[in-house]
Design a protein that fits this description.
heterodimer, A: 296 residues, mainly alpha, MetI-like fold, 15 helices, 0% strand, B: 290 residues, 2 domains, 13 helices
Amino acid sequence: MAKREERWALLFVAAPIVGFLLFMAWPIVFAFLTSLTTWNGSKGFAGMMKRFCGFDNYIKLFQDGKFWQTLCTTVIYLIGIPIGMVLGLLFAMGMNRKIPGVRVLRTMYYVPVISSLVAVSILWAWVYNYDYGLLNVIIKALTGRHGPNWLGDEALIKVSMIIFMVWKGLGTSIILYLAGLQNIPRNYYEAAMVDGANRWQQFRAITVPLLSPVTFYILITSMIGGFQVFVEVQVMTSNGGIGYSAATIVYYLYQKAFESFQLGYASAIAVILAVIIFIITLINFKVQSKWVKTMD
Amino acid sequence: MAGKDRDVLSSEVVSKKDRTINVVVFILLALGAVIMVFPLIYMVMTSFMTKNQILSGQLRVIPNPWVFGKYAEVLSKGNFVSGVLNTIKVEVPVLLIGGFTSSLAAFAFGKLNFRGKNAIFMALLATIMIPFAVIMIPQYVMFTKMRWTDTLLPLIIPACFGNVSMIFFLRQNLGSVPNDLMDAAKLDGCSYFRTFIQIFFPLMKGAVGTQLTLWFMGIWNDYLAPVIFLRSEASWTLQVVIRSFNAYYAIQSDYALIMAASVIAMLPTVILFFCFQRVIIESVAISGIK
């Protein structure tokens, strides 16, 4: 009887397992193998093995200025994560009060999240347009002076991208924090009030620790996502922006792989990316027990 | 008596203070919400403006005059229509087949017993963290070798094997279904597949609907996989098409056309979101708590 159940169960879960092996596990192995070659995609698997070069790609990568530049830009973009989290928490705390129209507000904040990333990237490239864009038109109407060239300056373009990413993702942190806040029992605050704790103390001693699982979740998912920024760069800039200043590591990887067909070199970037994300995830889970509190 | 009076008084003072805070908070939240949606409203407005108005450099949000022709122009472009059709051709089989395999797997993980169940489940769950950028080159090589890159198959076939986050949510959802149902079905000699189809699938319907809605949006908005795997223009999906519109028509400063195309590209997900926002938001919120 139990044997029969087991057989059926394995059959039912077979599809996702096979899918995982074919389209995830094998590609990861393959990516590593490719990274040890100078393959350009020609002459199949045999052609790849003939171009075996050991760890040359990795050595070249560590001397590649563009690799470090794009890695650096990717990390700079991560600044948007804490900004979005603080704003998200503030807005969620506001919405957690007895206020009319909270659901409508929540929906308005969430619309950018469900909108097509390509469409809103197109929109924001237009908003940032130097001569006619919404932002500079507003700045001119308010101050009488011409606004800055948002996407035409190596430093400012990063700020522009971060603003855009915070705008796009804010709704998610609001919703997650709001759900977390609603999960905190009211009587915790009442008990703290009886003990004479003021608002700030309550926030520090109750809200922040009890929200730490949500904070952890947002942090880890946004960091994994943050290392994979690509669409924004490709749509909003031409060729990674002036001096490659807006290009991220995935954008560089994409160009190496699908524009100059250096599949071996691009795979080495992919492997490094995987290692970075793996390490970040590992660190997050390791330190999780130190600061993430649970309800029980 | 006196103490009681004071209590009533102080609670009134607090609620009055609270009310002023609430008004201030509401104003701030509303202001923030306006800032959030204003770019989107401006996008819609721009799609109705004349080129002169768009390039006037003046802050005018309302089109003057209103021009409605850009939407017809977008829809008359052959590659735009084929982009929409291609996206739908991906959506339908993926949601039908992938939705089925995911529900079936979720049923097995949630209600059946087998060795290594938790280990397999955790392993699958961990794959959510694997970045697509890491596996896209090998997948591209694989799909090229299979001669799939001129078709939509690279977007359809892998997805038909199931969606891990959907499996996760449905399994979560099955937790609230009593195990007695499973035992009763076993006693009746009902086969496992029939138990799934006739008893558990109807119970999961609501959750399946929510997950399919989210999945629909994900496929609709997907860009990176299509732009890599779809080598011929004829097989481009909608997002790839509007990006090429942007590159092409921006040179001609035809921003009204670009915005009109982008608005249409956003419309289905926005409408779906407005229709199902309660369940969608709940589903997102749960992911952070659990």
